[in-house]
Amino acid sequence: MGGLDPSVEATLDALVPPRPHPDRWPAVVADAGRRKRARVLLLSIAPVGVVAAAAAVLVLAWPFASGPSGTILQRAAAAIGDGPVLHAVIRSGWGGTLIDLRSGARRQMHGEDELWYDAQRGVRDVSLFDGVVQSEAVYPPGRVGYLKKTLAGLATGYRKALSDGSARVLGTDVIDSVPVYWIRVDTQLLPDSGDNKLHEWAHDVAVSQSDYRPVATRETRDGKPGPDGNSTIVSVETLPAGAGDFARTTPDLNGVAMSSRRVGLLTPGEASAALGVEALWAGPRVAGLQLAQIWKDVRTEGYNRQSGGWDKTFTGVSLWYGELDTSFPGAFPAGAVSKPFVRVSESLTLDTGFQRGVLGYSPPKGSVLVFGGRIGVMQAAGVHIALEAYSENILIEAAKALRPISP
Predict the structure, then answer these.
(1) Would you say residue 381 has pLDDT above 50?
(2) The pTM is what?
(3) Which of 14, 16, 92 is nearest to 50 (CA)?
(4) Which end of the chain is more exposed for a tag (fewer CB within 10 A), N or C?
(5) Where are the domains of the chain?
(6) What is the rounded distance in angstroms from the CA atom of residue 241 to the CA atom of residue 244?
(7) CA torsion, ordered 211, 212, 218, 220, to nearest 10 deg
(8) Integer Cα distance of 340 and 321 in angstroms
(9) Which helix (H) or strand (E) holds 134?
């Protein structure tokens, strides 16, 4: 890099190492295409305009005049601790809006991931929504999938990237009123089957400018954050050897066969018998939509090859308000989801195949939890309810109108 003070040059080389073979991109891409396999390419990608970017990083990384000495990366490494077991709780970007059906008050709710990491025991990742387990995964040492790395990267890659010099400071930002530094943990090129092109995927961690503790993570593709946005780090700590529980606590449903089907058309009077308790409806018409069809749902789980049957069977009912698409042959024409509609599904059990958006969870009575403006879950009169609608307004109107079907 010539012409720089030796100490400055050493800092630049440590924080922004030169990109290897910067002119070999065509060869790399061509080689990836010839191999025709989805192989992760681990490449150190320097910013465009290395000198200008390096100067910006240098300003961020230079030791401060007061407080503990060291660069941003050194302080970030010190803030997270050096215990062999890392425990973190991360609030995910995904979630829903809890709406009070009487007052209309709204409150955002988010999922959380609780992560335990031990180099000797691997990673345990538990996804939760309001305390209810959504999924659980246990990875042996060195076996964390890249798609889980947005969250698990804090446990498996963050400290390593800080210590070995592969991490780099991107710049400053403000998250939830907290001034932060964004730190790039890793960068990879991955092929996308949708466009058959390589894309730059990266994982970043934001640390507080005051104490250098992690406050958020994110995943980016070609420099753009993912649809779920940032994941907030609620807490992070390091613990002594042997701490933490790495045993799975829920059944592993990977590979468990499941099915869902409609088995018969029902009248309003027959719906309660099929459900097992008095069914609910929004009347013969709601939000300007006519009740078009009621059917019985049968959901099964765990196919038994020896007996030729299913280990578990759950039943429920669904009501469709709106136009039916009769262009599909069969006894149960599909609803025309491109036009206004609302579907109300009911069950006495919160089995895995019943609802979308969240698993095994119903919000408090008198409220509905809405995902993406079109999916909702609620409970009333001892019945779990899943809604899907053309719009949030129609969904809310149907939720407010639900009442027992008259004999």
Answers:
(1) yes
(2) 0.70
(3) 16
(4) C
(5) 6-239, 258-404
(6) 9
(7) 140
(8) 9
(9) strand 132-139
User: Which residues are bridge partners to 304 per DSSP?
Assistant: 309
What SS3 state is found at 160? helix
Mean pLDDT of 41-51: 31
Torsion on CA atoms 342, 343, 348, 350, rounded to nearest 10: -90
Which tokens belong to 98? Answer: 């809890």
Query: 148 versus 20: which is more confidently predicted?
Result: 148
For 40, the token pair is 């992760």
Number of Cβ atoms within 10 Å of the Cβ of 361: 21
Q: For residue range 249-304, what is the model confidence (pLDDT) as tens digits? A: 888 888 888 988 888 899 998 999 999 999 999 999 999 999 999 999 999 999 88
- The enclosing H or E element of 192 equals strand 178-192
Q: Which long-range contacts (CB under 8 A, 24 or more apart) does 250-253 make?
A: 250/133, 250/136, 252/136, 253/352
Beta-carbon count within 10 A of 95 CB: 19
Is residue 113 within 8 Å of 126, Cβ to Cβ? Answer: yes
**49 backbone φψ class: left, alpha, beta (φ>0; ψ -120 to 50):** left
